[in-house]
């Protein structure tokens, strides 16, 4: 099979020139947002943010430390006293205004996202719309936070269950979805009546700051949303402040399992409420009765969305031996036809760079170990030749991969697609579940009995049956085992920011 990679047109982009194309330049902010004001760090320090598609500097952002974060927490704590007393209808109206402004400015938000995160512009626009859907959804859910009246065992008493906002929430978000991971958490928190202090990833802070600008325009009061930006160097102390400060009563984190374990241990010092969405290692199973074309098309999107940098992307692809060769041919053909490597703002790009140097090195290391153990690369497998010096790696398909190499056991978070053979349902379930994490899983079959058996047997929090996408604002997002605790999105997501209080009233 040919490993020729398609390249997008016009593969030379200058990030600073692209900033001048924003319709509203005030959305590109470089200072932190605390108590309704744009502020610098007390130290005056900043850090640089680079475009992963060119490795060029986009700009410099305020570099806060723990002392700065304490001020933001104080602002959130003060604002909470009044925000929690607003009615659900008032909060819903403000969230609706924020949603409308996000939609109105989606093109600028997408351009900012592509510059800092690298994903193709069409994909970035999709993320902005996806992110906005959580603001809309939770604004509507605010009015549906219902309590209960519990029948009392005593004749002269009544029991009422109330739900109240937890308090100030510390929100720590990753670099791969710099817009949607914030809106999915902050939308729920604000709808519940909580205030937030957000620490966005240092690789992608601009999307968070642009959202603050729009939230301020929507009329969300000072101190309700606070965003503290910091460098990688200051990240540990900022995270520690958010997880140990007693004024923070809830921590929401999306990121790797090792970091999640550390933050959870820190948060336990004050028994904070937590919801953690951590690493995954999603199996993608194609049974012999599957529609192979549909399965291949869904694998293309599931595996290579954001260049494989999603926690729910297919990490291990298991195909029944009876249809293995046919499926591999169909899938590789789609990769050749559909994926165009290039800078996210270049015409025709559908496949962008790896966001971090560390992530690129991990991809290359996993590939090398797999090949040294006998795996065969049938498509891709190297850094492409482009006219820019960005962090690109070709979409790569492998066969004959051992179950014992890191690619088979660890989350890749990059564009490597290993395809394995299997013989039986029992065998593939054993192999699919043989990992410590359990976020998402996918399988393709037209046997109704098998659909229920396999869906129930997969040890994951989300299952896609004949589809490679499990996420929307209405669906509960989260995993089991070492993939975290709690759920985001859906009617369950707002519960993560609420306390239950019992009133036992005697008369």
From TrEMBL:
PROSITE patterns: ALDEHYDE_DEHYDR_CYS, ALDEHYDE_DEHYDR_GLU. It comes from the Eukaryota. Gene3D superfamilies: Aldehyde Dehydrogenase, Chain A, domain 1, Aldehyde Dehydrogenase, Chain A, domain 2. Its EC number is 1.2.1.16. SUPFAM superfamilies: ALDH-like. GO terms for biological process: gamma-aminobutyric acid catabolic process. Pathway: Amino-acid degradation; 4-aminobutanoate degradation. Keywords: Oxidoreductase. The active site is at residue 277. The keyword Cytoplasm does not apply. Residues 38-501 form the Aldehyde dehydrogenase domain. One of its GO terms (molecular function) is succinate-semialdehyde dehydrogenase (NAD+) activity. InterPro entries: Ald_DH/histidinol_DH, Ald_DH_C, Ald_DH_CS_CYS, Ald_DH_CS_GLU, Ald_DH_N, Aldehyde_DH_dom, Aldehyde_DH_Superfamily, Succ_semiAld_DH. It catalyses: succinate semialdehyde + NAD(+) + H2O = succinate + NADH + 2 H(+); succinate semialdehyde + NADP(+) + H2O = succinate + NADPH + 2 H(+). It holds the Pfam family Aldedh. Belongs to the aldehyde dehydrogenase family. This is Succinate-semialdehyde dehydrogenase. It comes from Coemansia brasiliensis.
């Amino acid at each position: 099979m040919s490993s020729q990679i398609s390249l997008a047109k016009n593969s030379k982009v200058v990030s600073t020139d692209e900033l001048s194309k924003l319709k509203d330049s005030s959305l590109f902010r470089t200072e932190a947002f605390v108590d309704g004001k744009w502020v610098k760090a007390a130290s005056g320090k900043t850090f640089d943010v680079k475009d992963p598609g060119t490795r060029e500097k986009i700009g410099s952002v305020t570099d806060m430390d723990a002392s700065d974060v304490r001020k933001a927490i104080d602002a959130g704590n003060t604002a909470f006293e009044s925000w929690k007393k607003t009615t659900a209808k008032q909060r819903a109206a403000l969230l609706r205004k924020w949603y409308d402004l996000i939609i109105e400015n989606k093109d600028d938000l997408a351009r900012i996202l592509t510059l800092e995160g690298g994903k193709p512009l069409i994909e970035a626009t999709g993320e902005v719309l996806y992110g906005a859907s959580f603001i809309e959804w939770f604004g509507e859910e605010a009015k549906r936070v219902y309590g209960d009246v519990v029948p009392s065992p005593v004749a002269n008493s009544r029991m009422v269950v109330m739900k109240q906002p937890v308090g100030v929430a510390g929100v720590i978000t990753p670099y791969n979805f710099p817009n949607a991971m914030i809106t999915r958490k902050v939308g729920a928190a604000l709808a519940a009546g909580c205030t937030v202090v957000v620490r966005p990833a240092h690789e992608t802070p601009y999307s968070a700051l642009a959202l603050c600008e729009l939230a301020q325009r929507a009329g969300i009061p000072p101190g309700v949303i606070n965003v503290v930006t910091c460098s990688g160097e200051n990240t540990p102390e900022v995270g520690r402040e958010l997880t140990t400060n007693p004024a923070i009563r809830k921590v929401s984190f999306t990121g790797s399992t090792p970091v999640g374990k550390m933050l959870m241990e820190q948060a336990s010092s004050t028994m904070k409420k937590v919801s953690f969405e951590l690493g995954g290692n999603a199996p993608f199973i194609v049974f012999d009765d599957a529609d192979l074309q549909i399965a291949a098309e869904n694998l293309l999107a599931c595996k290579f969305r954001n260049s494989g940098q999603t926690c729910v992307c297919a990490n291990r692809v298991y195909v029944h031996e009876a249809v293995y060769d046919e499926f591999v041919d169909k899938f590789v053909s789609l990769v050749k036809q559909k994926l165009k490597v290039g800078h996210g703002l270049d015409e025709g790009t559908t496949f962008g760079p790896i966001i971090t140097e560390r992530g690129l090195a991990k991809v290359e290391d996993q590939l090398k170990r797999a090949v040294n153990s006998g795996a065969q690369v049938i498509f891709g497998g190297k850094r492409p030749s482009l006219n820019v010096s960005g962090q690109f790696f070709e979409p790569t398909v492998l066969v004959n991969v051992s179950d014992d190499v890191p690619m088979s056991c660890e989350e890749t978070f990059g564009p490597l697609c290993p395809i394995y053979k299997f013989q039986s349902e029992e065998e593939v379930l054993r192999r699919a579940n043989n990992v410590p994490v359990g976020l998402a899983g996918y399988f393709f079959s037209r046997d109704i009995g098998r659909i229920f058996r396999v869906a129930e047997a997969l040890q994951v929090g989300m299952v896609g049956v004949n589809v490679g996408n499990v996420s929307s604002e209405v669906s509960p997002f989260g995993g089991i085992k070492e993939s975290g605790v709690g759920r985001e999105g859906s009617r369950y997501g707002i519960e993560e920011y609420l306390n239950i209080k019992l009133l036992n009233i005697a008369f």
